[in-house]
Amino acid sequence: MIWKTEHITPQNDLYSFTQAFRKNSSPSTESNTIAIVGGGPKGMYALNHFVNQIHLNPTTKHYQVLWFNRDELFACGPNYDIHQPNYLLINYCIGHVHAFHPAYRDLENQKSFVDWLTAVKIVDTAVEPTDFASRALVGHYLQWVATQTIRNLPLHVQIELISQPVIAITDRDSKATIETNTGHWDVDSLLLTTGHCYQNSSLIDHPRIPAAQYIRTPYPVSQFENIPPQAHVGIIGIGLTFIDIALALTEGRGGSFQQGTYHRSGKEPTIYPFSRTSLPILCRGPQYQMQRTLYILTESQFKKWMRRSAKIDFVTEVLPLIEEEVQLAYYAVMFNITDLEMTRNKITQIPVSERFMLNDLLRPALNSEEKIIQYIQMNIDEARKGEEKSPLMAAAAVWGEICTHIAALYKTVGFTGASQQQLDQYYFGAFNRVSYGPPIANMEKICALAKAGIIRFGALPNPTISWQADQQTFSVYDVSGKVIQIHSLIDARIARPALQKRNAALYDNLLLQGSIRAHENEDYIPGSMSIDKCGKCTTIGGLPVYCYGSNTEGVFFDNDTLSRTKNDTACYWVQETLRQM
Questions:
Q1: I need a labelling partner for 535 at 20 to 30 A (CA). Which of 127, 297, 382, 391 fits?
Q2: Is residue 12 within 8 Å of 20, Cβ to Cβ?
Q3: What confidence tens digit (pLDDT) does each residue in 413-437 have?
């Protein structure tokens, strides 16, 4: 079952609720003022931490919480925008979604997404943890959680939601000044949960490309409405965001899917996706509460690494064991055996040239459109079997099993600079492609669109793009000289922090004024600002300034937007804020 907003009773939006809620309270003149800059799920989690810690540690001090966001989509953010189309889905089953923190279960009316959906649904179908849901529906859940948190505010804590982009922050002694286009506020403590505020570098060095033809951000998908039918559209990136764009340009224009076939509305363009590898993402089935046995990368192995005093070389020390683990997972399912030595013996009987290797998982040889479509169909068939019966899906699942441990090594012991760069810039994306893909239903749609000739997988790895000013079109070339002419170009990549590229205005301003500096690991500069292992900015003294979420990448690893516990730096910010104020 795929749950959508049409399956629940209408919900009030958080911003309107909070505006009405504030009419009954006003801040004290002696209030301590704290600010959360960023209104997505991470900002909401931080607010929840703060409120619950006040309840656990009662005080008579007055606090005013200023929560900034660029628009009114507080708690859900753009990823879980409550107004987006229902064909945009989350990429894992709903049993994994729980926006409350287990430490506060005795203080709140906590409900997982499954519990909440069961309470608000208007259809008779039972809610199962292995179901999927639209991102808009998850957004309603996140706003409900925020509403519960605000209802639970102590009397001496007031909150104000400010739906204006923050353009500058100036630190001075024990305070910081936050500026928007219409005002400024002095605060005593600051948490930056700015999410995906980064811009990708332009792939084309030409100043006069019409903005309507070179669309630099993938959301909201409503911005694609002006792309004319039958146009040739290039999409940079073949990941989860590409799927959203492809569906917006087809299903979002009145097309429909029936039994694996796409029925045209006549309004569709032709879509040409490409990336550095031009390999499609793997989908996955509804796996929930299943843990695969690990043979090599066991708890004891990771504990051994955690005791190290010197940095670890990811490429030479960790990657070979991942390769062996992936191979063991593949053949343990293929031969239906669980014993380590028996599996190894079976593998030795296979000629080396014929063995399944890590590169077969991460970089399969797909050099034609026909092979790419066959690969997508094969993946769908394997995903339906599940990790227990599909060798491929078992191999792909290894990364998900070990990723939390890799993240722990990343932020504590640390990897050498050169190997961290390899992990960040190649292996992280490669493993995510095979391990964190979309639900089967969405990949079936992509396959149907490809078979209908609407999506054209040209197999253009790492292409070169140029703008033809006289023709007002783009030319896309691969290394062999093959070329495709397109009318519109959409950048579907999700940009990461890159201070050295000045790809986020707020952080660029902080860098130019000397408030922050770039994090460095030996000779490698990942792109994030310098923070300590608790997320605190290392260059601003006098007041607590912390980062939480995407802005910690490079110091922390694999930030999950919806996770309450992974890389949770908000708890440290709350602790220091309450201790100092």
A1: 297
A2: no
A3: 999 999 999 999 999 999 999 999 9
